[in-house]
Design a protein that fits this description.
82% helix, mainly alpha, single chain
Length: 139
């Protein structure tokens, strides 16, 4: 089998990582959604519900990314700290977005859609910064 040119193998590797990231993120996102929607329906405001649900899934997300998405290119403790810092940044961004978007009655009445907009908006932020945390690469 002929070898691919270097740029094709890098593209294939990046596409493969994004696909695995999408799959693991899908699982974690489903758990995040379930937790968020239950909390917002019965207990807390959207902002507090997001903080609780996002915090619950941060460690699970790290474990899945560690074993199924990225290669570890730095000590595990350092990677964990970096990943948690990035996740905390994502928590702050997502909570701010939920606060703003919840001001719109249409979205406030459709929390599932509101959360989908926020989650989709943060996909690339999470992928590229987590890749840097694990592999010291952005692209």
């Amino acid at each position: 089998m002929p070898r691919r040119p270097h740029y094709q193998s890098r593209w294939h590797e990046l596409a493969s990582k994004k696909a695995r990231f999408l799959m693991t993120s899908g699982l974690v996102t489903a758990l995040d959604y379930a937790c968020y929607l239950l909390l917002v329906a019965y207990i807390f405001s959207p902002v507090v519900s997001n903080i609780v649900s996002y915090t619950v899934i941060m460690v699970l997300n790290f474990v899945l990314q560690r074993y199924f998405v990225f290669e570890l290119d730095r000590p595990i403790k350092r990677t964990f700290v970096l990943a948690m810092m990035i996740s905390t940044g994502g928590l702050i961004l997502s909570t701010a977005m939920i606060y703003v978007l919840d001001q719109y009655p249409y979205l406030s009445e459709r929390q599932f859609l509101l959360k989908a907009i926020v989650t989709g908006s943060l996909f690339f932020y999470n992928f590229y910064l987590k890749r840097y945390a694990f592999e010291r690469k952005f692209v």
